[in-house]
Amino acid sequence: MADLLQNAKDAGFDQAEVYRITSQSQPIRFEANRLKEATRRDTSGAALRVIHDGRLGLSATTDPAAEDKLPARVKELTPFGAEASFELPGPADYPRLQIYDEAIEELTFDAMVQTGQTLIDAVRKTWPELNCSASVSRGVHRQSLINTAGLNVAFPQTSYSVGFGGELVRGDDMLSVWEGFGASRMFTDTDWMIESLVQQLEWARDTADTPIGQVPVIFTPRGVSAALLRPLLGGFNGKSVMTGSSPIGERLGERVIDNRISIFDDPTIDGAIGSRPFDDEGIASRRMALIDRGVASNFLYDLQTAGRMNATSTGAAGRGLSTLPGPGTSVLDVAPGDTPYDDLFLGIKEGIVVERLLGAGQGNEMGGDFKANVSLGYKIEDGKIVGRIKDTMISGNVYDALSKLEAVSDKAEWVYGSLRTPAIRCLGVEVAAAG
């Protein structure tokens, strides 16, 4: 990296940065109740980003022998690059995080297979007709960054994920259930996954008629992830603020949803997938409120969008090897409320529970709209789940729904390792028959 940076200096660029990643991943996959595939992937590469005559240039390669050609490639591209609105950052103080676990790097193939097969066998003891699939994966990643402003940083990170589920076919009815978790530290407790999957199956044993209209809706943590967060947080992305497409671009400091909702972008949580000591441009990580008790508090900026908006980078830069950085979330942390989960159901004569969606992202998502089919949801009658709903669609606007909030559960759960959120009960969601 030092040689490549020196070559960039010798080429006469005003500023230069070398970004390098190396990763090893080993996923295994089960289908139809048995091991289907086991692979190992090793990738590495380097990217050279420069600023010259006020323009941005980028070139990348995964071929070590071609790295010395990057300065010449970038020199050809830079005159056509976007106008740079920032200076490369120097060194800073970075948080010390626990995001590397040697036990993951040493995890054996046989142990991963046993984990997947144990989960499948356990759930099929009570549901033998379930056609199960599973995935178990481990990864080791290293990211390094060096630039002409004196920055020279790197960090290793491990990842381990387990997911399993299955399909239940009865005549023309097909039910799909799934559970999973991921972390940057090793975990062995998977009993809760089995319990969750069995609970989903039990709730879905019978079917029930869908209540139509605006009825109370409980979004489980997975339902919050599927339906609400993407249209809500799209407005906080620095690019949408910069282009004027964000519905809250002029509302910083104003209440935009119910004051019981607080959402943080927090890449400093130990063990979370997405945590990191610095972002992909070398800006130190910190916990930052996007929404604080219903008030829009911060936008997500990388260096370029921050420069365009006369703001400061919030450490939100993410990138691929061959793409320029852009702002995005890292680990999302939604604050819990004060209502026990079971109490969310109290007082509901007719309503639904949303667990997972199919086809989310329809409608004017940037404006906060959501519209999707419910792939797994349940009907509530007189405060109790009475069966699974089928052929159901939900739609609404996330700002409206979260302004008609009824309750937030008192415990937040991890959803696949990079989101922690409670369940949310609200009105303002239209429930209709699909098709």
Q: What would the keywords be for this entry?
A:
435 residues; alpha+beta; PmbA/TldD fold; 9-stranded mixed sheet; 7-stranded antiparallel sheet; 9 helices
Summarize the structure.
By secondary structure, the protein is of the alpha+beta class. It has two domains: 2-200, PmbA/TldD fold (2-Layer Sandwich), CATH 3.30.2290; 207-435, no CATH class.
Describe this structure in words.
This protein is of the alpha+beta class. It has two domains: 199 residues, PmbA/TldD superfamily (PmbA/TldD fold); 229 residues, no CATH class. Helices cover 18% and strands 37% of the residues. The protein contains nine helices and 24 strands. Strands 8, 9, 16, 17, 18, 19, 20, 23 and 24 form a nine-stranded mixed beta sheet that branches. The model has no long low-confidence stretch (mean pLDDT 95).
Write the layout of secondary structure elements.
Layout: H1 2-10, E1 15-31, E2 34-38, E3 41-52, E4 55-61, H2 70-77, H3 102-105, H4 109-124, E5 131-147, E6 152-170, E7 173-183, H5 191-203, E8 213-214, E9 217-219, H6 221-233, H7 238-243, E10 263-265, E11 288-292, E12 295-296, H8 303-308, E13 317-318, E14 326-327, E15 332-334, E16 350-358, E17 369-381, E18 384-388, E19 392-397, H9 398-401, E20 405-408, E21 413-414, E22 419-421, E23 424-426, E24 429-433
Parallel strand pairs: 9-16, 15-22
Antiparallel strand pairs: 1-2, 1-3, 1-5, 3-4, 5-6, 6-7, 8-24, 9-23, 10-11, 10-15, 11-12, 13-14, 16-17, 17-18, 17-19, 19-24, 20-23, 21-22
